Sequence to fold (258 residues):
Amino acid sequence: MSDRHTDVTMTARFSAVECSLKDVLDRIGDKWSILVVAALAREPVRFRALQRSIDGISQRMLTLTLQRLERDGLLTRTVIDMRPPRVEYALTATGQSLTIPLRSLADWAEEHRGTITASRAAWDSQHSS
Amino acid sequence: MSDRHTDVTMTARFSAVECSLKDVLDRIGDKWSILVVAALAREPVRFRALQRSIDGISQRMLTLTLQRLERDGLLTRTVIDMRPPRVEYALTATGQSLTIPLRSLADWAEEHRGTITASRAAWDSQHSS
DNA sequence: CGGCATCCGCCGGGATACTG
DNA sequence: CAGTATCCCGGCGGATGCCG
Fold:
């Protein structure tokens, strides 16, 4: 009985987690959002600087990604009126809070990168027949 | 000098993080990998049970995702010889370790879901002109 | 049940050109 | 510099059918 009750509870909690994960993935699970948030983690950055710091992102995708993140309240867009035009992007408190789990993910990647690469090599050589 | 040195160090560390993030996103940044890992977090699960528990995944994508995750050493595939066929998928130690940062992400989503939804609604009403 | 093979639609996203 | 507008392609991924 006790075991069973525990299991039901944990199953419910697990379902909730899975649902949350799907939510977060729908929001920031695209190709660039996470990288943009990471690039803004330390300080506000201007548009071109962002584009230079995020390897491989196109102007179009940077614009779209920034707009979505602003819509979700993860960052703010500030126009400083001068010539040439100057627009700064900065994380909101919510956006800043996201950098904490992102850091965990990055740390995980750092730690297991070697293992994963090795596993791939082993798998590939074994399935090359 | 001291400030400058600190800044250079942090910039380097930041670049490393960004690189790690790109790595992890290239591996598990697709539409389903994270959800599959989450679905296996508690215990080994069979193919059909997985498909039922992950809402919306097709047979094809489940197969492909499982193969990639096995190749990366995040899970194991075990065939139990009986009728009807029975195949169990289970996380490896590496895969299990990934559930920790994933849990952080899910918790973040849980905590900020309301804020984000509200921000979206506000943005949408303001840009409906 | 647990797959694999094939076909195909869609859209994410790159390239390019143009504006303020 | 900081975008917007268009065009267009590749491949992700869904649907379907077949096999051990």
About this structure: DSSP finds five helices and three strands in chain B. Residues 30-32, 58-61, 64, 85 of chain B lie near DNA strand D (CB under 10 Å from a C1'). Chain B touches chain A through 52 residues (CB under 8 Å).
